[in-house]
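Prompt: May I have another protein with tokenized structure?
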Amino acid sequence: MSIATVVVVSHLVGLDASPPGLFGDEAAFGYNGWTIAHHGVDQYGVAWPLFFRSFGDYKGPVGVYSVSLLTAFLPLTAFTVRLPNALAGIALGMVAGALGWRLTRSRAVALILIIEASFEPWFFHLGRTMLEADLFTPLCYVLALLALAGNGERRFRNCAAAGTCLGVAPFTAQPARFFTIVMVGLLVLSFGGRLRGRQLAALVVPPLLATAVVAAAGGEAVARLGAVSVFNGRSGLDAALLALTNYAQYFGPRLLLINDDPNLLLSSGFEGLLFLTAIPPIALGVIAAYRRRTEPMARIGLLGSLLAPIGPALTVTVSARRDVVALPFLLALMAFGWEALLPFLRLGRWRAAAAIALVAVFATPYYLDYAFVYPVRAARAFEAGEIDAIKRAHDIAGGHTVLLFYGDRDPSIQALFALRPQPGLRDPLGAVGVRLLSAPGELATAQAGDIIVLEAGDPPPPAGARLLFTESARGPLSLFDMRETTVVLVRVYRTTGP
């Protein structure tokens, strides 16, 4: 119970503060979840859609509908929007522990798997954002593995449970829309003749039907895929070379152990996706799984780890989120690895103590940075201050128009989140007194008394505009220099008359 309490508290405390702010994709999940809960339509007025169109992208139903369930009785806040992924992360930790027990019959391995799936940076960070329903994907896959482990493939109810989980997966994060069918093939191949008749049908039919539904959705399910494909604007040879380079990077130490994902939306930018202490159990897990490759779960761990990065490698950038489908296989290999490592650590108390101390050496700086430094470092990436600035600007506008500038990013979804106009209107922003500007020259069209909200990097306000207030992030910029620094994120002005 004490470990479960620590996992729950660590995943929920400060959920709206680190990461800071609320990125546009998160705000889209929030606003569409709110409109579904309170109006039964998405932001464009479409009733109960399967995929949610939002500014050129389509959000998956699991993420939006889980937010809608919460906003039916909770206020629409950053905490509420991120809560589904946080709960999925908590559940994933518990289910990973159960999988560890089922694979090894070791309580120690089960406990360690709970800790690994809860506190390794890759898992922890994805549970604190809602860029997509990221952790629901590995949760579905690990639940399926749990149902099939320990001769579960021989029982119809276990196969039905695994099939149901796999049937939900394509509606979680975008990588699962394509990988789930690969996962089904991997399970059938690994279990071979053990899956027959009713058991095989119960496992295979739900994900096949779900994949057919996703395929029928067409462009809604693959929005933006063409723009990020390695084949976009490249010859076949160049695309293949880039894909091979990307594939290798998903196994490389730079991403996994050293520098993390450079996108501060997807990682903290401090240390790697995994702590260096993950190397021994993973390496031993690969060796153990290879030696036990005649066993279905060992084959799944090995082959799944090799197959998972293929899809992500076909996009132009290496991304921790796109490779989220690899997490279940990582956990399986860790289970085998810790089973092999624990006898060595038990040979002497000093060995276990040294291992715990080593974990603390790597984990403590990461979590200190995450709590105190990352909120400042990632403030602009997460558009921190934008929603609060729009709310406050609208409150003091006094009937005048609030002007937002579309620079590097479109602030429209933050305005919808902040002000919550009725969905389905032709001009929802205009209905709440907001106008979007897209060219610097349009700032000169502001009328006397209008409010202008400008992010860092936007053009300057018209001459004579008076600064009303700013939204800032305050805190240290490094663990090695804890002096407080102020980073101005948003400036709000009122225009004056001629």
Summary: The radius of gyration is 24 Å. Residues 37 and 73 are 9 Å apart (CA to CA).
